[in-house]
Amino acid sequence: LALTGYPPEDLLLRADFCEENEKTLRSIAREVGEELVIVGFVRRDDFIYNSAALITGGKVAATYDKIHLPNYAVFDEYRYFARGERPLVVTWGDTRLGITICEDIWYPDGPHVAEAASGAEVIINISASPYHRRKWLQRERMISTRASDVGAWFLFCNMTGGQDELVFDGGSCFVSEEGEVVSRLPLFQEAVGTVTIDTTKVFRTRLHDPRIREESEAFFPDATERITLRKKVSPPAAKGDASLSPPPGEEEEIFRALVTGTHDYVRKNGFRKVVIGLSGGIDSSLVACIAAEAVGRKNVVGVAMPSLISSRESVEDARTLADNLGIEFHVIPIWDIFDSFKDALEPLFRGLKEDVTEENLQARIRGMLLMALSNKFGYLVLTTGNKSEMSVGYATLYGDMAGGFAVIKDVYKTMVYRLARFYNSLKGKPVIPERVLIKPPSAELRPGQTDQDSLPPYEILDPILSAYIEEDCSIEEIVRRGFDRQTVRRVIAMVDGNEYKRRQAPPGVRITPRALGKDRRMPIVNRFFR
Amino acid sequence: LALTGYPPEDLLLRADFCEENEKTLRSIAREVGEELVIVGFVRRDDFIYNSAALITGGKVAATYDKIHLPNYAVFDEYRYFARGERPLVVTWGDTRLGITICEDIWYPDGPHVAEAASGAEVIINISASPYHRRKWLQRERMISTRASDVGAWFLFCNMTGGQDELVFDGGSCFVSEEGEVVSRLPLFQEAVGTVTIDTTKVFRTRLHDPRIREESEAFFPDATERITLRKKVSPPAAKGDASLSPPPGEEEEIFRALVTGTHDYVRKNGFRKVVIGLSGGIDSSLVACIAAEAVGRKNVVGVAMPSLISSRESVEDARTLADNLGIEFHVIPIWDIFDSFKDALEPLFRGLKEDVTEENLQARIRGMLLMALSNKFGYLVLTTGNKSEMSVGYATLYGDMAGGFAVIKDVYKTMVYRLARFYNSLKGKPVIPERVLIKPPSAELRPGQTDQDSLPPYEILDPILSAYIEEDCSIEEIVRRGFDRQTVRRVIAMVDGNEYKRRQAPPGVRITPRALGKDRRMPIVNRFFR
After folding, report:
1. In chain B, what are the helix, strand and coil shares in percent, each to the nearest 5?
2. Is the pTM here over 0.90, yes or no?
3. Residue A222: its pLDDT value, please?
4. Nearest to A185 by CA among A130, A145, A242
5. In this model, does residue A197 exceed pLDDT 90?
6. Residue A258 burial (CB < 10 Å; 0-12/13-18/19+)?
7. B474 and which of A16, A60, B245, B528 could share a cystine (Cβ 3.0–4.6 Å)?
């Protein structure tokens, strides 16, 4: 759906949206000469379809409708689309191309099987395949298997960029009929590559490997549509094969996903500058680094908002980080505002002990100050909570959760540390001060507080959370992995009890197979507490 | 899905959840004697099914799997369930019962057709049919048509109560084979009714009306499962037929939906008391009335938080309302806190004019004070924004939008007035002071401000919003209904531009066919601005 972005969600229910998409398709078609261009768009007929347009000679010469519609995880395609029914093979010059869209090739018996059985030598797949950690590895492995299963070249073309929670990692690739990745474009980067391939081996491969003949058109008997498009021009002279872009390591990959997602959210929503509350802690430090990479250091404003509880070191660390990054930096103390709130509430709170109320007040004063800067100067507020905190509700609604985009909300705390160290080593210097990396994490909302007063150590918390959130494990299953039952119970109770907070959280980049957004849809009114 | 609540959402992806539901089913079965009891539950086989258990003699004697799975509007059943394939007719004593679940009978050719063709005299439908304005009328009309289409009695049994955004309106009914509603239980109220019916006319009707014979089993050839359960006991003596509960008027119906939704959200989440910011305006006044009805006046706390801009009348009106309702009432002035924020921001704001920043600061101070009361005393904060405001973003994120439940977020302003007048007439006295009903609405965030400085009159705004949000109309279509093009453009731009705010709003009761929640799923990053 290159024309509409993915997922267009309920925009698809608007007739004027589909109309505009068709208009755009026609205007693109008019620009296309004798080459063959394939574009994803929404096709209207009796229903709407998730479709590919094959354009040549100034017009749409054929269309293909997606057959397998995903309706799980972040996908809701049954909400909108009718299912295509016909695999498509296009003869283009000497080559037969099978057309597929995204999910189609994730099924071992998807339309590529019928297309190959109908002679397709190259299976083309246009995708908006949402990123999560290391997904491209799984994807390339799957494509290689599919290619060798049916003995056809696979050309996988993937979107890159961000939309709300989702980021798409690109990494388009060309895979030989033997399953070898011969070309890979970079991840998280728009890129064009020219590849020259030799499809003569396809026929020979199929003589040697009877599987595709056996399969024949079993899955789509007689259904494959076959068309021939006249090819008038020879291919552009190969400008040298697209290189095999080296795969990034895990930290680099995740870091770039976060940068891409943040850049696109900020820019596509029309913001130029962002503002971040810098506590001197690891989370806000990492977010500032990501922001500086995403929108440029001149567009990042850091603000330290010390209370009387904040240590001197915290403000120092925040300032050092800001200096290292070269971003604008301000200090706004919050103690007078805090006192004015306590004064106003004194008639109702008289005689009561200070508790989480006063802790939250401080976090909320900070949130309000950042929002005031946002209102006055048009900055987007980036929040700094990580997935470990967001899961257990160790964050203040309308406080540190206040903002437009939650950059690291899908990054567990242990990964926050890994990414921080990665960034420092990438830059070859401690941009994030070493002290930030080694001091015990603290919200600094009461004297002497550390995260570990309320939470298990992150090395224990994170795997419990991952088992519960990403794998939907029961308490029993998690305990069997070697965790203390009381701890598991407590962690899960915290996760369950804080759904209402997450419901009001800003979106953030999805980097795990199960983010705390449209990926995990839980009722708030829910008596299934373990 | 009486055992799990509806919709269980991603709890369904947890094996331990499904297990617990089966355990509960077995424990219910053990309580069942020789009567026939039908219970909605999640059935696990190779996949999971949305199912009905037929229980008699202490065990589950048969199950039926829902055939038509809704996946639109607020429904996501394809995300979870496999589709049932077999209509079911159960012979119970002398009577043949066809079993269906909710969506099944919304299809004219649903399983009730095959079941009737297989001899069913009574079609039983167990439903969790989410409420929206006047839906029960449409539903009864549909059921009447289905009953006379197939010449069978229909027993429609609907859930009541609230879950997050959804409220279910009950109104279970018995409809004769001629389509006459002979019995209706009250809306928004758990109730039990006993009905004695005569099914002898069913056979005669079918002799006279050949349609069902013609249809035969066209839609499910030979697929209907037929079982016989031994009926050992005679039916309980009819305690007098369940009465035909009189249908409520539109305002009463909506008011009761809001009361039910609020009651269930507060109680099911374990809260006892709620707190509301009372501005002296119509929205917060109505919310206070709904809250008093929902959780009892002793559990409602009203707080007026005047600024220097607030008129004396506003605080007076808030106090009068609180007195009329008999709820706890406090006044917390916000001017000192406001000054302390301005002082803290002075170094950054020096020389700049006051603007929306300062307006939002006031709204956010109020939000923070309510949240402080929430934290200190365990109150749930009810927010007071209406659908007109929420649609165009005429609300402050983390300000008046801060809270756990947004009671009237799906109620347009014009309906807010109607409901307020309804409530006063219900009580036979001006609980909401007359002055509140006639003064021009104002956010009172700057001197002399009224809503109509920024928004078209609500009589114009509301129908534009309804056309755009509920009907997905284009600008052209709305203009053709007689609205000024510039106004329509401006309103739609406001709706589109404020998706990010709605994403962070608390849930509230859905009363229209398209609420601003899981019902309307729009990307924030969205360049389709008209």
Report:
1. 40, 15, 40
2. yes
3. 65
4. A242
5. no
6. buried
7. A16
Measured from the Cβ of residue A298, the count of other Cβ atoms closer than 10 Å reads 12
Query: What pLDDT was estimated at residue A203?
Result: 85
Query: Does B340 lie at the interface with A, CB-CB under 8 angstroms?
Result: yes
Residue of A nearest to B378 (CA): A357
- pLDDT, tens only, A491-527: 999 999 999 999 999 999 999 999 998 889 999 988 7
β-strand B173-175 against B88-92: which pairing, if any? unpaired
Q: What DSSP string describes A38-79? A: EEEEEEESSSEEEEEEEEETTEEEEEEE-S----STT--GGG
- CA–CA separation, A326 and A301 (whole Å): 10
Q: Is B130 on the interface with A (CB under 8 A)?
A: no
Comparing alpha-carbon positions, the chain A residue that sits nearest to B402 is A398
Tokens of A111: 């339309």
Neighbours of B138 (CB within 10 A): 11
Q: Which residues contact B448 (CB under 8 A, 6 or more apart)?
A: none
Asked if B294 and B273 touch (Cβ cutoff 8 Å), the reply is: no
Angle at B148 between CA B143 and CA B154, to 5 degrees: 45
- Do A242 and A194 contact (CB within 8 A), yes or no? yes
Q: How many CB pairs under 8 A join A and B?
A: 211
| A:63-82 residues touching chain B, CB 8 A cutoff | 71-72, 76, 78-79
Which residues of chain B register pLDDT less than 70?
215-222, 232-242, 529-530
Q: Give the nearest chain B residue to A517 (CA atoms).
A: B503
Cβ distance B10 to A164 less than 8 Å, yes or no, reads no
> Which DSSP string do the residues of B411-454 spell out, in sequence order?
S-HHHHHHHHHHHHHHHTS-SS-HHHHHSPP---SSTT--HHHH
Tell me: the pLDDT tens digits for B28-39? 999 999 999 999
Predicted complex: ipTM over 0.85: yes
Contact B452, B305 (CB under 8 A): no
| pLDDT tens-place string over residues A173-192 | 999 999 999 999 999 999 99
Per-residue pLDDT, B236: 58
Indicate the SS3 state at residue B134.
coil
CA-CA distance, B455 to B498, in Å (whole number)? 14
DSSP-assigned letter for residue A308? S
User: Any residues with CB less than 8 A from the CB of A420 and at least 6 apart, and which?
Assistant: A282, A285, A286, A289, A432, A436, A437
In terms of average pLDDT, the best of A197-206, A218-227, B274-283 is B274-283
B153 three-class SS: strand
Alpha-carbon separation of residue A173 from A124, A183, B419 (angstroms): 11, 5, 60
Q: Give which of B48, B331, B341, B396 to mutate to test A binding, by max A Cβ within 10 Å.
A: B341
The one-letter amino acid at B520: R
B506 contact A CB<8A:
yes
Distance of CA B168 to CAs B159, B248, B272, B390, Å? 6, 15, 22, 23
CA-nearest residue of chain B to A73?
A: B79
Q: Strands B95-101 and B88-92: what pairing?
A: antiparallel
**Residues in chain B within 8 Å Cβ distance of A13:** 472
Nearest CB partner across the interface for A265, out of B345, B355, B525:
B525
Burial class (CB in 10 A: 0-12, 13-18, 19+), B266: buried
d(Cα A415, Cα A511) in Å, to the nearest integer? 11
Task: Inspect the interface and report whether the beta carbons of B348 and A8 lie closer than 8 Å.
Answer: no
Q: What angle do CA A446, A304, A417 make, to 5 degrees?
A: 75
The predicted pLDDT at position B239 comes to: 56
**With a CB-CB cutoff of 8 Å, which residues 346-405 of chain A face chain B?**
347-349, 352, 355-357, 360-361, 364-365, 367-369, 371-373, 375-376, 397-398, 402, 404
Reduced to 3 states (helix: H, G, I; strand: E, B; else coil), residue A313 is helix
